[in-house]
Amino acid sequence: MDTTDLFGLAFGCPFCDEKDDCPLKDLRNLNDFEKQYEIIENMTKEQKIAIISHHRICRIKQNELRKGNNQKIDNSTKND
Asked: Mean pLDDT over all residues of the chain?
């Protein structure tokens, strides 16, 4: 499995709103590239798949929240 996505996610949440249940939260807090690299390289294929799956679900939820907020903004401006 390609770990490129995991390395990018290991350095920061692309949504700028890291959730408490993020499986990479502790890894990000290490602030040690070599240790982060070592941990990712030693993950099983199943662990890597689980993390990527969690990220994809989180991305879908974030997009839904943004859509909901945009609809609220659109509706409030229509009443002006």
From this structure: 82
- Tell me if the pTM is above 0.90: no
47's enclosing H/E stretch is helix 45-78
Cβ neighbors of 18 (< 8 A, separation 6 or more) are: 25, 28
Q: Write the CB contacts of 9 (distance below 8 Å, at least 6 apart in sequence).
A: 24, 51, 55
- The domains of the chain are located at 4-78
- Residue 78 CA, chain-centre distance (Å), reads 33
6 neighbors 48 (Cβ within 8 angstroms) = yes
